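Exercise 7. Given the components listed, write out the predicted structure of the assembled complex. Treat all entries as one system.
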Amino acid sequence: MFKHQEMEINMGPQHPSTHGVMRLKLKLDGEVVTECRPIIGYLHRGVEKICENKTFAQGQIWSDRLDYCSAVANNLGWAEACEKLMGITVPRKAQYVRTLLAEFNRLASHLIWLATHALDIGAMTVFLYAFREREDILDINESYCGSRLTTTAFRIGGIPQELPEGFEQKVRTFLAKFPACIDEYENMLNENRIWKKRTIGVGKLSAEDAIALGVTGPVLRAAGVAYDIRKAFPYAAYSEMQFDVPTKPEADTYARYLVRMEEMRQSVRIIQQCIDGLPEGPIMAKIPKLLKTEVNEIYHPTEAPKGEIGYYLVGEKGGAGPYRFHVRAPGLLNLQSLPKMVEGSLIADVIAAIGTLDVVLGEIDR
Amino acid sequence: MKKLLRTLIPFDIAKGLSITGTYFVKVFLTANRAKVKQHVVSEYPEVPAPLEPRFRGRVQLTLDEVGDPKCVCCNACAKACPTGVITIEGGKKEGRKTRIPTRWDYEMERCVFCGYCVEACSFDAIKLNDQFELAAYDREDFSLGLHGAHNVLEPSPVGKFSYSDEA
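Answer.
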């Protein structure tokens, strides 16, 4: 009497829960997802090609606009990649400031992830609480470099200006109150039965699958693989910092939530060490005014909040900008694991899986 | 039995609600009275937003003692600009040793407010002011120049639709 038929639907590109202009082609059998294909490219701007026509210093503003929730982390990767290409050593104070701001950025990025992820699943209160703290971080960004979101925070060879007056006080005030705020979020979510039912066992991705798909960041660490570029290939001042890499073996959405919360605590620890041990000295290396490269090619990975962001740069002889430029964006490779996570599960779990991957379309489409 | 009790009485949800309740009571009891401000939301359009001294707003030229732009038309800012929004043409003026801009065009619709132009300038002839309410209805309102309707020297050619201006 009833005909059994699979239905094909589009989720997105204008869907509030796809975090931007991502389109998912879903094949549904009733409420069960049988096939999921992410379709990307709606935010493509050709960043890689644009940067080939710009100088190294100018390229940094496009790194702001890759993953716009964690601009400082992208700036850090870009600046370090250019320095690696040209063999510039950065003064120690600049390294510390870079580390400090990058960790603040990790907090901001994780907070916006927590807010939107919880909102998607139905916990609206956390959204407002997380944004309250994120505002303080953006104020710190603004006092340092004058911009809140598109920071353009660093320069090749160091940092553009000294820390402003009252910066240390601001950071210390924030550090004093923030651990209590993380406890607040956890009190609201950790034991909440709705949150647990929506996340435990949802979006499973085993360690083998994660490694095979090139997934990095908290998603990989929540599968039990303790891989963090800050530990594996230390850059900036991370080799002098004491911190742990949190892992969880469960590999589901709840485990990823716990890993990210623990990462925030570790970030607070790193910021505390940075501000306590901030060395004196120059902030800029001695570099020529017009940067020129030799024939050279480098790949520089750094740990952005979402995973490994790597910059691949090829220099030509006497070139003021990169000959070839490529970004290994963590979001793009993490997104590849979405079909593995959701196929065979209910359609409501697709929202949880998108949220847990922390997708930002700015870096996926580039 | 214990499990049934736990299901019937939602302790877990009450734990979360108690946090909201604490904040509610705190703000409710101290509203209008507390010396320490409890609310976090700023009343932005009515109360102007506080800005940091380093805030990167719109490009504005600075003037010398005579009232002319300090710019000497070296084109350093135009070369440093990642999006190429600055166009300068230089000319001469009686009694001034350096060149003076006859044309200084700034197309704000493509500006990314990175501040590279300010860093490139060795004459302090350019600054990013504290304007951020830069919305306008007309595309022409974003083309700022030295002479003409929208002057790059003046503080507010656009941003006339901001709430605080009307009040």
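Discussion: DSSP finds five helices and five strands in chain B. Residues 161-167 of chain B have pLDDT under 50 and may be disordered.
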